[in-house]
Automatic annotation (TrEMBL):
Membrane-spanning ranges: 16-34, 54-76, 88-106, 112-135, 147-167, 179-198, 241-264, 276-299, 306-325, 331-356, 368-390, 396-414
Main localization (coarse): membrane
Location of the protein in the cell: Cell membrane
Record key words, sorted: Membrane, Transmembrane, Transmembrane helix, Transport
Entry keyword Transport: yes
The Major facilitator superfamily (MFS) profile domain, residue ranges: 22-420
Organism the protein comes from: Pontibacillus chungwhensis
InterPro entries documented for this protein: MFS, MFS_dom, MFS_trans_sf, Proton-linked_MCT
Superkingdom of this protein's organism: Bacteria
Keyword match Membrane: yes
Protein name from the UniProt record: MFS transporter
Membrane topology, as annotated: Multi-pass membrane protein
C-alpha cells in the first residue's frame, strides 16, 4: 500500500492536470537543445573560420560528418528511452550536453572541433528534442496537438533568443566564454528540474492521459483514439506510410540546416548585413510561435498528412523567395514566410508518429525518425559549402533544394494513417 501511494504521488501538487507541468519541462528541454542546434552553432562559425583559419567547406565538412555520425547513433537513444524512461534520459542527456558545451569552450584544433560538433548534435539537436517529443504524447491524447504546441514555445524562444544572444555574448566575452555560460546554465537550471519534476507516464502518479477518463476532445478527433493502436517498430516499418513519412521528416532537416548554417554568408552575398541574418532567425521564431497554436488545433481535427503537405508547399515558397531576395524588405519577407513554415513543421513532424503508430513503442519509432532527421541535417551544410567554394554563390544549390520539399509534398498526400486492422487482418 505504501509503495502504491509513493508511486501515485506527484512531485508537486497542482490545481490543474500535472501533464501541463510535463509540457513545461519538455518545452524547457527543447529550449536547451539550442546550443546543439544549427541556428546557434552558425553564429560561432565565422569566429572559427577567423581564429583557426579554416575554409568554409572544411568547417562544413567537419560539421556534416559529426552530424552524420551523431545521427547514426541516435537510434540507440530512442531504445534507451523505451527501456529507462524519459526522466532518467532527460537528466542524463542534459548533463552530457553541458559537458559538450564545456568541451567546445576549450577547443584548440580540428579533432576537438569535430568531437565538439558530434556531442552538440547528438545530445543537443538529437536527444534533447527526441526525448520531450516522446514524453508529451504519453500524457495527452485528445489535446496532443495543443500540448505539443505549448511545448514548441521552448523551441521558438530558443531559436529567437539564441542567435542575437550568442552574437552579443561572443562580441562581449568571446566564443569560449559563451560556450561556458551555456554549460553552466544546463547543469544548474535544466538538469535539476528534469530530475525533480519529470515523470514518465500519467500512471506513475495515478493519473491517466488528458486527466479525465473520456475527454470531450476525443470525440471529434480523427487522428487518435482513447485506446490507441500501438505498433512495434518492425510492424510500422512494413507499412508504406512509414517510409514515405520518414523521407518527409528528413527534408526540413536537410534544407533548413543547409540554409541556416550558411545564412550569414547567403545574406552577405546579397549585399546585406550580418545583423539581418540574425534578425531573420529571430523573425522566423517570432512569427512561427503563434502559428504553432493554430496548427496544434488543426492536427487535432484534420488528418495529419494533409497538414504535412501544406507545410512542404510553404517550404517551396520560402526557398523561392530566398532566391529572389536582394533587399532588406525581401529578406524580412523571407523570414516571415519561413516563420509560418517553421510553425507548421514543429507540430506536424512531432505529432505524426504517435498519431500513426501509438505511444507504447514511440521511443524506438521516434528514435529512428530522429536519426533520419539528424542524418538529413548532416548532409545539408556540406553541399552549400562546396557549391560556394566552387562557384562563389548559392543560387544553384537553392534551386536543387527546392526539389526535396516538392517530393515530400507529393509523398505526404500519398501517406494517410495506416490501418492497424488491415495489417493484422
Amino acid at each position: 500500500m505504501n509503495a502504491h501511494n509513493q508511486v501515485g504521488q506527484a512531485p508537486v501538487k497542482t490545481p490543474f492536470y500535472y501533464g501541463w507541468v510535463i509540457v513545461l519541462i519538455a518545452g524547457l528541454s527543447v529550449f536547451f537543445s539550442g546550443p546543439g542546434q544549427t541556428y546557434s552553432v552558425s553564429i560561432f562559425i565565422e569566429s572559427y573560420i577567423s581564429d583557426f583559419e579554416y575554409s568554409r567547406s572544411f568547417v562544413s565538412a567537419l560539421y556534416s560528418t559529426a552530424t552524420l555520425i551523431a545521427g547514426l547513433t541516435l537510434f540507440m537513444v530512442g531504445r534507451l528511452v523505451d527501456r529507462l524512461g524519459q526522466r532518467i534520459m532527460m537528466a542524463s542527456v542534459g548533463l552530457l550536453l553541458a559537458v559538450a558545451c564545456f568541451w567546445n569552450s576549450f577547443m584548440i584544433g580540428p579533432v576537438m572541433m569535430f568531437l565538439g560538433f558530434f556531442m552538440l548534435r547528438l545530445f543537443g539537436q538529437g536527444s534533447m528534442t527526441l526525448i520531450p517529443n516522446t514524453l508529451v504524447p504519453q500524457w495527452f491524447i485528445g489535446k496532443r496537438g495543443r500540448a505539443l504546441s505549448v511545448m514548441a514555445i521552448g523551441g521558438f524562444l530558443s531559436s529567437a533568443l539564441l542567435p542575437p544572444l550568442n552574437t552579443w555574448l561572443i562580441n562581449e566575452f568571446g566564443w569560449r566564454t559563451t560556450w561556458t555560460i551555456w554549460g553552466v546554465a544546463l547543469a544548474v537550471i535544466f538538469v535539476p528540474l528534469a530530475i525533480f519534476l519529470v515523470r514518465n507516464q500519467p500512471k506513475d502518479i495515478g493519473e491517466i492521459p488528458d486527466g479525465t477518463p473520456k475527454h470531450k476532445d476525443l470525440e471529434n478527433n480523427p487522428n487518435v483514439e482513447v485506446n490507441e493502436e500501438n505498433w512495434t517498430l518492425s510492424e510500422a516499418m512494413k507499412t508504406r506510410a512509414f517510409w514515405l513519412i520518414l523521407f518527409c521528416v528528413s527534408v526540413p532537416a536537410l534544407v533548413n540546416t543547409g540554409v541556416t548554417f550558411h545564412l550569414v554568408s547567403i545574406v552577405q552575398g546579397k549585399g546585406l548585413s550580418n545583423e539581418l541574418a540574425a534578425l531573420v532567425l529571430t523573425l522566423m521564431a517570432v512569427i512561427g510561435f503563434p502559428i504553432t497554436f493554430v496548427v496544434g488545433y488543426l492536427v487535432d481535427r484534420i488528418s495529419v498528412h494533409y497538414v504535412l503537405a501544406i507545410t512542404f508547399a510553404g517550404h517551396i515558397l520560402a526557398l523561392f523567395i530566398l532566391l529572389q531576395v536582394n533587399s532588406t524588405t525581401g529578406i524580412i519577407l523571407y523570414g516571415v514566410v519561413w516563420g509560418f513554415v517553421n510553425g507548421f513543421e514543429r507540430i506536424v513532424l512531432s505529432i505524426v508518429w504517435p498519431n500513426y503508430f501509438g505511444r507504447e513503442h514511440l521511443g524506438s519509432i521516434k528514435g529512428l525518425a530522429q536519426t533520419i532527421m539528424v542524418l538529413g541535417s548532416a548532409f545539408g551544410p556540406l553541399p552549400f559549402g562546396l557549391y560556394f567554394d566552387w562557384f562563389g554563390g548559392y543560387e544553384g544549390i537553392l534551386w536543387i533544394m527546392i526539389l526535396f520539399p516538392f517530393l515530400a509534398m507529393v509523398f505526404s498526400l500519398l501517406s494517410p494513417k495506416p490501418s492497424y486492422q488491415a495489417y493484422h487482418g
